[in-house]
Amino acid sequence: MVLKLHGARMSTCTRTVAVVARELNVPYEFVDVDFAKAEHKSPAFTAVQPFGQVPYIDEDGFKLFESRAISRYLAKKYAGQGTKLIPTDPKDEAVFEQGVSIESSNFYPHAFGFAFEKVFKARRGLTTDEARAEEHLKTLAAKLDAYDVILGKQKYIGGNELTLADLFHLAYTQFLITLGQGDLFESRPNVARWWKEISNRPSWLAVKDGA
Amino acid sequence: MVLKVYGNPASPCTRTVTMVCKELNLPYEVVVIDFTKGEHKLPEYIKKQPFGQIPYIDDDGFVLYESRAIARYLASKYANADTAILYPSDFQGRALVEQAASIEAFNFYPSVYGAVSERIFKPAFRGQPTDETRLQEHLSALNPKLDAYDKILDTQKYLTGDNFTLADLFHIAYSALLEQAGLGSLFESRPNVARWWKDIAARESWLAVKDAA
User: Fold this and answer.
1) Low-confidence ranges of chain A (pLDDT < 50)
2) Which of A72, A105, A149 sits opposite B66 (nearest CB)?
3) Is the pTM of this model over 0.95?
4) GST N-terminal domain spans which residues (chain B) (predicted)?
5) In 3-state terms, what secondary structure has residue B169?
């Protein structure tokens, strides 16, 4: 049975799983979750994903949610095909884990925080707090200075090979760029080099406008 | 060479790492970084941890930071037959740990950190008053998340099933701070969360580090 990806086409986290599946040459069937009808908050949905969030996968009855957990599962299970996305050498794997954690602790909160103020709040009928949006940008800028140092010493955020840690940055970086914040990345030479490379991978080009 | 943990006894992320060491019966030495004096922002420190955050480890010359990455590395390297259950290697078992660890990082930690920051870190370390509006926002975000936790823990003992894993462990240090911040009722009011918290907070490995890493 082909892997089923339950999500929303433009959802950042759904596109993250889609790009990973494509890197691994894992075919999937996209199953749309109807946000307009609040399907993600329905009892049938929350029975699988108690937080009412997308995406989740269903692989022959094995259901899993949290895009980064799904990505890790696919990368380990399908390690023999497509791009190697998690190193096997223990020290390389540790540096990969460090990269994944850098994304979740240092990048995501501020990328998400900015997007929340500028876009998500409006969708919920709330007003943007411009001061908070600025705060997130300021913090993100300082974090990206550290990224520029790291990427001056190693090719990718998880070491010298491309890993999931890099792919986890794709959706929100693209979001920030569409919100006019591309300069955060362009103005830092190593970050710019890294971004140009990962954002031009065919797997991302195939899903960036819809999983 | 004994594992060196560069951190601070008062730091929750340092305690996460040392608790993992205790779970694995792995000897370690804490090298104290005095964050109140800004030691974590000095050039010497930044060379090892470019974000100026604690902790980092030095395992015989191998330097690693980010407490959740360190935990996974130590569990993978130093687990034996008894402790391998903390971070299983079969595909589905591992996936369930990563699912619960991701829940912690994205559904639990941001709001808990925010609330603890308002109630404890700001007044104690940054000379700033609690912003009650922001505190309420964090609590409003956290409450429905903890309802989901209560639902998950209604049918299983731990976050992934029958066994205590790194995913449960990642919640402990900040949950203790939530209690310290006078917000323990968030857990107490939810029977399954309360049961789970009481169990994991009683682990010997936590008791050994909770007050001093």
Assistant:
1) none
2) A105
3) yes
4) 1-82
5) helix
- Count the domains in chain B: 2
- Is there a domain that residue A17 lies in? yes
Q: Which of B77, B98, B103 sits opposite A73 (nearest CB)?
A: B98
| Closest to A87 (Cα-Cα) out of B16, B72, B168, B53 | B72
The parent domain of residue B49 ranges over 3-85
Is residue A83 in a domain?
no
Does B170 lie in the same domain as B139?
A: yes
Q: Do B51 and A104 touch (CB under 8 A)?
A: no
- What pLDDT does residue B212 have? 82
Cα angle B117-B122-B126, degrees, rounded to a multiple of 5: 135
Contact with chain A for residue B131, Cβ under 8 A: no
The predicted complex's ipTM stands at: 0.97
CA dist., res. A171 & res. B42, Å (int):
33
A74 CA: distance to closest CA in chain B (Å): 9
* Strand A3-7, strand A28-32: pairing: parallel
Q: What are the tens digits of pLDDT across the range A129-160?
A: 999 999 999 999 999 999 999 999 999 999 99
Asked if residues B153 and B119 have their Cβ atoms less than 8 Å apart, the reply is no
The 8-class DSSP code of residue B39 comes to G
Cβ atoms within 10 Å, residue A17: 33
Beta strands in chain B (DSSP E): 3-7, 28-32, 56-59, 62-65
Whether residue A146 and residue B98 make contact (CB cut-off 8 A), yes or no, is: no
B67: its two tokens: 């407490």
- Per-residue pLDDT for B213 more than 70? no
Classify B62 as helix, strand or coil: strand
In chain A, the residue whose alpha carbon lies closest to the alpha carbon of B150 is A50
**Pair A110, A10 in one domain:** no
SS3 A86: coil
Indicate which of B48, B106, B131, B190 best probes the interface with A, i.e. most A CBs within 10 Å of its own CB. B106
B15 and B47 part of one domain: yes
Binary contact (A143, B62; C-beta < 8 A): no
